[in-house]
Give the backbone structure.
Amino acid sequence: MPKSQFIDPREKRKAGFVEFGKIPVNQYQKTIKDEKENFSKEDFLRIYRDMVIIREFESMLNQIKVAGEYMGIKYNHPGPAHLGIGQEAAYVGMAYHLTVDDFIFGSHRSHGEILAKGLSAIHQLDEDSLIRIMKSFFNGATLRVVEQGFKGNVKDLAINFLLYGTLAEIFARENGFNKGLGGSMHAFFTPFGVYPNNAIVGGSGDIAVGAALYKKINKKPGIVVANIGDASMGCGPVWEGIMFATMDQYKQLWEEEYRGGLPIIFNFLNNQYGMGGQTCGETMGYGILARVGAGVNPEMMHAERVDGYNPLAVIDAFKRKKKILEEKNGPVLLDTLTYRISGHSPSDASSYRTKEEIEAWMKEDSIVHFGNQLISAGISDEATLLSIKDDIEKRIYNTLKLATDDNISPRLDLEKDPEAIGKMMFSNGSVDAMEKRTPEVLLPLEENPRVKSLKTKARFYLDKDGKPVSKAKLYQLRDGIFEAIIDRFYKDPTLAAWGEENRDWGGAFAVYRGLTESLPYHRLFNSPISEGAIVGTAIGYGMCGGRVIAEIMYCDFLGRSGDEVFNQLPKWQAMSGNVIKMPVVIRVSVGSKYGAQHSQDWSSLVSHIPGLKVVFPATPYDAKGLMNAALQGTDPVIYFESQRIYDIGEMFHEGGVPEGYYEIPIGEPDIKVKGKDITILTIGATLYTALQSAKILKEKYGLEAEIIDARSLVPFNYEPVLESVRKTGKILLSSDACERGSYLNDMARNIAEMAFDDLDAPPVVVGSRNWITPAYEHEKYFFPQPDWIIDAIHEKIIPLRGHRVKHNFTINEQIRRAKNGI
């Protein structure tokens, strides 16, 4: 059950002050001589080498972009190559103490992060592990390119593998780490703990929190680092992610063994984009970014500014902050001060830095300074450092040569296989559980109070005498959803659910009533009112290997999670080359009675986005079967529910809703009522409006309507609909979505094309009016009504003898409304 935290007004109303502690700023002052006892000569030289590898790799990309060649190799790369030249110390310092169990997420400017984390992983892994990773990844396709003619040890081979896999991805080659579908801004390599880099500024801010939740909830080793730029401090995903990461419940309400802060570092690579500049900057007012941590929680997020131009300072900071996370005292905010030379050049049209500023920072070049310190401390000499640079230049040259050879590094052949990308949009997997271990629950399933109660409910809407069952005794649509979800919680140990008020009062609309008795806090919990983070964290949780149900309480709130739903959730499977799966179900409740901002059906919006499966059950039988299918799969599913029919009973499936497990394949429409004169295809709650219309058609006009419930929007099997149209010759489509831009229009167009020879009239769409959703008292003028459907049939499909029209569905009226935008 939900725990109660008493809020004492006498305490809350006391006078006082909020006091803050000190936030360290650039406190690391040690020299290489001071650190000799902590680092070997090899360690120091490896730090230097890794910085030079990153600098040369990005300098090569810069030369390709600016001059079209590098060391005599000509190549035209019109795609993006967002660079971070100048930030090498920050990258290498960040990765130094991270293991393959530690996950990093980045931005569109993350080549350096990929390489730094990869090089660190290669150093830590043994040769057998490296060989196993390289051979198993895409069945060794990437490895086969770099091992041809290679002479050297396994670790050197692995470095070539890392460089080539990253560059081939940037150049959209099939041997790239994501088959060339991620490209420069999205490249990643999960076997080394490098998770998706995000082209949307701040896009990793909430996704990385989901990864940290995955580790916490499933007791996985390691921490998570969200590498994001300072400008992302102005972005919603970052703020919502921070709020989600600092929830008090982790330390106050979760079970003892799960209690404690999230294992995540928000690492702001602060190149002063937000604080400086002539044209783009001056957009932040915090002065020092680390200040922000003071306002978030009493621990001030253990915030600190660290000198990101000194790799040893960053290494020291990450070592200390990682210890904080391992002691369950996270999260942490790091303000890693750095500077990006690339993109700051006065010759760059996008420059927003002065020449004097650039020259000042270039004099502080971290690679030059660190190299000079190595020489001064007797760690190395100039000849050794030059030899390192020479070797790296050869590696980069050879890597570029391989990655630009069309024969060695082909792209996906979309001429030979036009559906190569389409095949990767969905994984279409089927798994009972994401991991094989015993799920953590509070009591046996059969002892759950609601489970026991449902055994007494009538699973069909009529009793044995053919009379309607009272709602108090009826198995309802909300029960079908609940039954599928609780069943999966007892099968899949990784399954977790969150959203607004999920653990209170049975969640929104009592769907979750009874779950709190069975589930500990870490598997079902309340989130902040942060729809973006609700979905964003689900994405991170899913891509790391967990299954999650996230709830958007009202469909209208999809707008608050727009980037996450439209730009993140649907794309990562394909952008990864199907390396990652996305077993995420987003429950979305479509409202009514609540006016303009709480009563919209936006199913058409998500159906427009490639990469999402979209379902909208309207009966208890379908609700349970489709939720079972969604929770058995490995793809993202938007699961719509109508608040108007939560309490409806099963009217169609013979025998009612089975107690046992069953699935309804996503994409299969269902004929609810057979008929011969006209087909009515519905989405969502308008199924019941269509039933009323069919009754009128039969009683008044002698027409038998065949009613088909779409059940799913994406995917969708048109064959049953086309078969019906071949029989009836006529079709009307209806849903509660506003008619303009409705997904019904897309379906109607497809039906018109595919069934042209069978149709006696064009397909007709009846949706809601193109208005704001009015108050409950006016809803009958907004949502489709039975007489609307009858009038539309009469005026556009087949004249009904003696029918008197109440609503204008003529072509002239259609033209008038379009002219007026309504």
User: Anything to note?
Assistant: The longest strand covers residues 731-738. The CA atoms of residues 756 and 762 lie 9 Å apart. The mean pLDDT is 93. The radius of gyration is 30 Å.
